[in-house]
Amino acid sequence: MSDYSDEEMDDASDYTEEETYEDDDDAISFDTGPIQQKPNNAGSTFEFKSLSTDDLRTLVDSEIRDVSNIIGLDLEITSILLRHFRWDVDKLMDRFMESSDVALRLVGEPDSINNNRKQRDTPVFVCGICCDEPPPEEIYSLRCNHRFCKSCWQMYIEEKLKTEAQCTIPCMHEGCRTVITDSSMSFLLDPTFVSRYNELLINSFVSARSNLKFCPYPSCAEAISSSVGSSSKHIFTSFVPTVSCRNKHSFCFGCNLDSDHRPVLCYWVLMWQKNTREDAGTAQWIKANTRECPKCSNSIEKSGGCNRMLCRHCQYQFCWMCRQSWDVHGYSDALCSIWKEPDRDESMTMATKNLEKWLFYFDRFNNHELSAKLDQALCEATEEKMVEVQEASDLSWIESKFMQHAVDALTQCRLTLKWSYTMAFYLAQGNQKQIFEDLQANLEKAVEDLSQLLEEPIEADTVKDLRKRMMDKTVYVQKRHEVLLNDTADQLAEGKWEWVTPLDA
């Protein structure tokens, strides 16, 4: 049941900053790369491996072949069926077993490949798209027998691939839903567009599977296969599913954030990002520093010294102090003097506290985020310093790499510290939060001490002492980083953290 032309059928490691939980002794080896493991609350592991484009293509071909053997159809038609049912094998099998004819009609398969055979008996063929009369060898038809010239087929398919990013492309004939097969793609297109078609096919497979995700880093074609699907959100309340592709890009498998957001859970990361987008600090400021118009309840901010307020919405005038109508109040200080300024109500007091809390944590989060953005400049400066180190001493290039190791440690620790303030924001007050903040403060102090060492001048007579101090401090920073992450992960796995609101709220 493959497409054909008028003439012929188509033939056509130890602890590192990148991975705290990795355990080389327990790692399981696979043909496509090592599986890395994360602890969870069930005492088992969160396993994942990095897959290349070739690995994904092998998975796709294997699934098509397995289903084809069961339902007894060509590989190409099976591929079309799987795409229609979003690669859900169970759903496809159920529908196909109910009625194979209905399942095939759903994907546009013609009832018979000969239903349009009479079109081939016409003495002169005119392409319905370009209205040219191509020679017989330039005429091509699908299983539905709708014929067009090869040039029109090619332009049609290429446009679909370029502008609509479709891998399931129907026949050009109006109202016909017969899908163009892989062999037709190979026959009609040049290798560049065939490659694009295969890329879109793989994308459709990955997007349909909750246990597969592409690496979010630009130009990286690796994907991650995990033992747990990302749709199982409740599982990710006991650990942070940080993964790394073969190219050493770390990201979160749960929320797909393109960085390692440990120690905070995906749930709170999404909440934090939502609050940031909605500018929660501004909202709290408005609630804490404005008053409602007594008539229309719109919020009004006092921008001058005069207590006479005019609501721009309803034009109502009132006194800022006592909120009486200005028609009654006027400029009478005596009238207002018999009233105290109304006490701030509970909602305004709470809003002020929420504002102060938000600004405190957001300022520190933003500070580390800003520092992280300067890491590239720091790395460049470090390269220059390493040259200075070599020139000022007899150290080898390898021995002078201590500064680069320090920068790498700083980069990872600042990323962790940034997200640690998000976690602290959502932690409930108590001993657990106090212990967490002590660990956070210890790491932050160590990071700042190491950062200061990088600023010290390079002198020939002191460079070896600087190297020793910086190496010692780098190891200390890494250990404090490890303690914070491990302590957080252990308590997450045991469900000991207390939050300001329940995770399922």
From TrEMBL:
Tell me if Flavoprotein is a UniProt keyword of this record.
no
Q: Where is the composition biased (Polar residues)?
A: 34-44
Give the GO terms filed under biological process for this record.
Answer: protein ubiquitination
Which EC number(s) are documented for this chain? Answer: 2.3.2.31
CDD domains xref list:
RING-HC_RBR_TRIAD1 (cd16773)
Q: Which reaction does it catalyse?
A: [E2 ubiquitin-conjugating enzyme]-S-ubiquitinyl-L-cysteine + [acceptor protein]-L-lysine = [E2 ubiquitin-conjugating enzyme]-L-cysteine + [acceptor protein]-N(6)-ubiquitinyl-L-lysine
SUPFAM superfamilies, alphabetized: RING/U-box (SSF57850)
Keywords attached to this Swiss-Prot or TrEMBL record, sorted alphabetically, are: Metal-binding, Repeat, Transferase, Ubl conjugation pathway, Zinc, Zinc-finger
Comp. bias intervals (Acidic residues): 1-28
- What's one Pfam family here? zf-C3HC4
Q: Where is this region: Disordered?
A: 1-46
Q: Provide any one GO MF term from the record.
A: ubiquitin protein ligase activity
The protein's enzyme class: transferase
Q: Does the keyword Zinc-finger apply?
A: yes
Report domain RING-type positions: 123-340, 127-167
Q: What is this protein called?
A: RBR-type E3 ubiquitin transferase
Instruction: Please name the source species.
Output: Thelephora terrestris
Q: What is the lineage of its organism?
A: Eukaryota, Fungi, Dikarya, Basidiomycota, Agaricomycotina
